[in-house]
Amino acid sequence: METKADILLQTFNLTMKYGIKSVSMDDIARHLGMSKKTIYQHFENKRALVKEMVLATVVKDECDIKQISAKANDAIDEMVTIARHILSFLREMSPSLVYDMQKYYAKEWQMVKKHHEEFVYGVVIQNIERGKKEQVYQSKINADVIAKLYVGMSHLMTNEEIFPLKDYSKSELYSNLVTYHMRGIVTEKGREYLAKLKID
After folding, report:
1. Dihedral of the CA atoms 82, 88, 89, 93 (nearest 10)?
2. What's the pTM value of the predicted model, to 2 decimals?
């Protein structure tokens, strides 16, 4: 199992740096200092490896965000810390990674989208309800509507026709999205606190 975990970790590191399409099984084997035969003992092919890598990444991301939520002092602190966590991931990510997923690994990409729609929606709903109780978010906003808008706008970031890779970085898009989202839902009390925190 340790060898399998190493393969997943190093594949993740390589694809984060170079994208998925340009990283071959030979590259992964060479980077790990092992034969391709050893990799194929754990994964039938590159697609199986990518699928498991994506799933492991999604699970880890969920755990990280749950820990952030549990430790946050309040709703604004929670959302800003989650945003910083995601921004740090996006800044390390190859610009072509999402494009490669959409074009060459459509099923795996759908898995990511499903995670995003379900898990992130739940996180935003919980965060909004928490913020309302703490009086840092407006009491009249509809948490369901705002959470769905947030998820929808997040997906829009991956639309190459609207936001071509050559013109927009994912970190820039996400930073603007979170700023737009937060400023739209905070109360005056929340706005004063938000001004003291730096998202990026």
Report:
1. 150
2. 0.90
